[in-house]
Amino acid sequence: MNKYLEDLIKLSKFDTAISMFEPKIENEKAKLATFVETAEAIKASINESYLEIDDIKSKRTKNNIHLSELKSKLEDIAKKNKDVQTEKELKALQLEEEIAKEQIEFANEEIDRLDKLAVAKEENLKELQEKLANEEEEIKDIQIAVDNAIEEINKERNVVYQDRSELLEKFDNKILTFYEKIKRWAKESAVVPVKKQACYGCFMKINDKTYAEVIKAEEIINCPHCGRILYKEDETEEA
């Protein structure tokens, strides 16, 4: 095989490997992000629960104040009953007393309802806090695993960068410039294999003459359709 072509294949494989490291790192970070998002959602629910409990307590306080006012009103009505002089005044006081008693009954029912609701909200809050604690413990474990995985990926990446750097030290500048021009638009598929007589960059079939030249590998051959650099994998690699 042409030495320049051999170097181009190696360089292309290094660049392909390098392009895959960042997605690998992002994939590891995504594992952690899922748990962090869940934890944040639980925190939001906890904050909402606190607000709901505060609102319930505020409503209960208002009902208690209203209940106290109604009881005072009944006491006033009882005092006025002593000074009633006409049937009309008596009926008016009785109506006022009935309305006050109904309001007291409603206020007591509302306080009872709010108390039950507060208990349910407190229980739900406790469950959310326990769930958050468990989630945060899992996050700690996953953070360690993700950090270790990213560290290994970075070590692997450094090895590839080093190998690529060593290859470039002995690389022909004209060939490198030629490669970089193609890579500018073809990205990591600047150098591609030929399989079943087709370019594995554009997937177009190449003619017999070009295919024969690719098999010989004596020169650097470009795909006649897309311009990528072509090479023929050995049979083991292709399989």
From TrEMBL:
This is Zinc ribbon domain-containing protein (DUF164 domain). Residues 198-230 form the C4-type zinc ribbon domain. It holds the Pfam family Zn_ribbon_9. It comes from Malaciobacter pacificus. It comes from the Bacteria. The lineage of its organism: Bacteria, Pseudomonadati, Campylobacterota, Epsilonproteobacteria, Campylobacterales. Residues 27-183 form the CT398-like coiled coil hairpin domain.
